[in-house]
Amino acid sequence: MSQSAVGGANAAAQNTVADQVNRDPHARFRSRRVWFYLLAALFALSIVAFNIIRPITVLPRIAPSPGFAFIGSDGQLVTSEDQRGFLTLYSFTYLDCDTSCPQSLESIAALRQSVIAALPPDTPLRFVTISLDPERDTPERLRQAGEAWGLPTGAKEWQLLTGDPARLRATVGGGFRVYFSEPKEPTAESPGRVTFDPRYVLVDHLGIMRADYRTGALDPAILVRDVNLLVEEAANSDGIARLGYEAAHLFLCYPR
């Protein structure tokens, strides 16, 4: 066969393909749609597989924790930035809240002791308790309460804070979303000076709220589990390991 004949055959084939495309202008669109559906199905299967296998478990990133500047038991300024680099468990009560109230200082101390005993000694965990009765809970009273639990004045491992009532309400009520009433004189019907919802909030080393425990009787085992999850995540926050943790957040691989 001559070269001219071969060239003519190739040109005819190209014209035939072009004619087919011209006759069906939606062919390319349908092909792209098929690929879109395949990718969407693959993504959905990945979500299901990741949640079933659950190679990594993470705590949700709830919201940034509120900024604050309060006064510690030593009379010195304590800010939210002072907690950066540490895991921090926030709690809320007042000194005159006895054991019958929903979240007393005694119950917080008992939780702290149980958790510390279960964690490695180098765990970067701090406890911060913010008073809900700041006008009565002065730094001096906080110091005395801390010493009763064996805490040196101004100890970093468990900080007892008070401050301006308006700023405190904005931080605790608006930032941590803890309901509490204005302090009042106790009565027979209402023996507590402050009515409040018990709450613990766990904040990570970057200042992000990661767990919100709406109870005054938090199980130490749950807190230990969650602290270990955050420590492990922080240790794997660089390099390729970070991709796995970001995937766990994307696929909502939270503790069950």
In short:
The protein is an alpha/beta fold and 256 residues long. The chain has helices at residues 3-23, 27-53, 105-118, 139-148, 165-175, 220-235, 241-250, and strands at 63-64, 69-71, 77-79, 87-93, 125-131, 158-161, 200-203, 208-213. The strands form 2 sheets. The protein has a 6-stranded mixed β-sheet with strand order 1-8-7-4-5-6. The protein has a two-stranded antiparallel ribbon with strand order 2-3.
Task: Describe this entry's structure for a reader.
With 256 residues, the protein is α/β, with parallel strands linked by helices. The chain has two domains: 3-53; 63-250, Glutaredoxin. 43% of the residues lie in helices and 14% in strands. The protein has a six-stranded mixed beta sheet with strand order 1-8-7-4-5-6. A two-stranded antiparallel sheet has the order 2-3. α3 crosses α6. It is elongated and about 75 Å long. The protein starts with a helix and ends in a 6-residue tail after the last helix. The model is unreliable at 1-9 (pLDDT under 50).
